[in-house]
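C-ALPHA CELLS:
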Amino acid sequence: MQLIKVSSNKTSFKTVHFNKSGLNFIVAKQKDAENKEVGRTYNGVGKSLLIKIIHFCLGASKKSYKTFCNQLPGWEFTLEFEAQGRNYVAKRATEYPNKIILDGEPLTLAKFNKKMAEVSFNLPDDVSYLSFRSLLPSFIRSNKKSYVSFYDTSGAHQSYQKMIYNAFLLGLDVFLAQEKQQLRKEYNRIKDFETNFKKDELLRDFFFGQKDVELTIDDLNDKIAKLEMNLAEFKIADDYHMVQKEADNVENELFELNNKIILLKNQIRSIDNSLKIKPSEGNLEDIKKIYGEVNVHFSDSVTKTLSDLESFYEKLISNRNRRLLEQKNKIKAEIKDKASSAEKMQKSFDQLMKYLGEHEALDVFVTMSERLSDLKSKRDNLKKYQTLQKEYKEKLREIEKVQIEQSEVTDKYLESMKPEIEEIRRYFRSLVKRFYPNSVAGLKIENNSGDNQERFIIEAKVESDNSDGINNVKIFCYDLTILFKGQNHNVNFVFHDSRLFDGIDERQKGEMMKVLFEEFSNTDHQYIASVNQNQLNEIKSVLGDELYKSIIEDNTVLTLTDEDPSEKLLGIQVDIEEN
C-alpha cells in the first residue's frame, strides 16, 4: 500500500501529490524567517492535519472527528492510493462521516476497514484486536501521544494490545500470544472468584479457615430436618387471629365477672356480720334499777313510754334483720346466676384455648418456611462453594501447568525463529549504531514467562546515551525496521510528523536524512514526513547544499507557510483540536 494523492472538493485546499517511491517532504515555512511576531509559527499550517485527513479517508472512527466535521461543514476529502498493484480512490465527507465511498461504492466504516484489512495485512482468523485500524498507526502515527513510545503507536492501548500488534508485525506467533492472554484472563477470573469469597459475609470465615465447611453443612442439615418435620405437623388456622382475639375478649369478660362475684360474696359476709349483732335484753329493768338507786321513781306515764320505746326498738331490729335476710337472698341468687355465666364462659374460653393450642397462625408458618428456605440457601451456597473451590483449585493448577508448558513451547519456538529474529535485530541495531556508535543498542525479543498476559517481551534499547532525542531516534529506527523487515503487511510507506525531529541533535537529524536517502533509494517504498523550516536549516548545515538539494529540495512535495490562511493546507483559517 502506497499513497498517491490527497485532495478535496474545496478549491482552497492544497492538493498533495506523493512520489510513488522514495522520499516525500511536506515543508512548513515562515514566509519571513526574521519576523518574530507572536502567532507567526510553523504550527497550524496543516502538517499534522494532513495526517488526520489521511486517517479520516482510511476509516478512522467517527467519534475522533466530531470537532473536525463540525468545523469543516461541506468538506469532502479524497485519498488515492495503491494496494497490491491496484489503484483505489476513497472519499469521505464531513456531512456523512458514517460512510466512505471506495471506487464509487458507498461502504460503512466497518465494511471499508474489512476491505482494507484484506489488501493491507495478512490477518489470521480468530485473533482478537488485530485489524486494519489497529495496525495502520504503526505506519502513520496519528497524534502526539503516539510519539511517546516506539512500542505504542496510539498512546491509548493496553499492554497486551501493544504487544500483539508489535508481535504480529515482527512476524511472531500471535496464537501463542493469544493463548497466554486467554489463560491469564481465566486465571484472573478465578482469582476474582476467590476475592468475592472474601467479601461474602457467609463464606468469608470459611475462606480464611475460621470455620469448617463440612461440620457447618452437617449442622445445617440437622436444623433443616427438624424444621421440615415441624412444618409437616403444622396445622394452620385461617381464623387463628380472630379466635385469638375472641379468646382475649372472653378472658377479659370472665375476669370482670369473677371480680363481681367476689364483690357480691363480700357483701354477704358483711350482712352475716350485721345479723350477728343482737339488741341488749332487760334494758328497761336496768334503767329502773339505776334510777331506783338514786331514789328517782318513774311515773306511770314515763314507765309506759319506756315500754313503748322498748317495743319500737325491738320492732326496728326485727325489720332490719328481715331486710338484711332479703338482701342476702337476693345477692345469693345473683351470685348463683353470675357463677353459672362464669362457668359457661370458662368452658368457652377453655375450648378457644384448646383450639389455639392445637393450631398455629399462617404467618408463623410463613416465618418458619422462610427460615427453612434461608437455611437451605446457606447450605446450598456452602455446597456450591465447596464444589467450586475444588474445581477452581484444580483449574488453577491446570492453568499453571499449561502456562509452564506454553513457556517451554515459546522458548523452543523463539529458538527455531532465531535466524529471522536475528535479521530483524541486526537491521534495527545497524540503524541505531548510525546515531549512537559507542552505545550498547539493540532490539530485545524474548519469551515473557511472567505473571501477566504478554507472551513476548519486545524492547528497543539504547544504553549509555544522555541525548534528549534518544526516544525519537528509537521510534525512527523501529518504524523503518517494521517497514523493511516486518512481516504480515503489505504497507509500503511510513509517514512521520515533524514532532519526531523535535529534541534531536542537528547532527542526528542530518544522519536521519542520510539514512532515509540510502534506505529508500531504488525501492518501491515511500517515506513521508512533515518538517519545519528551522529543522531543515539544521539539517542543511550538516548535509551541505548539494546533498540537501538531493534529499530535501528534490523531494519536497508540498510547502506550507504562515503568511496567509490561503497558504495553509486547507486554504482557510480554522482551529481543529487534536484528539
The chain is about 55% helix and 15% strand.
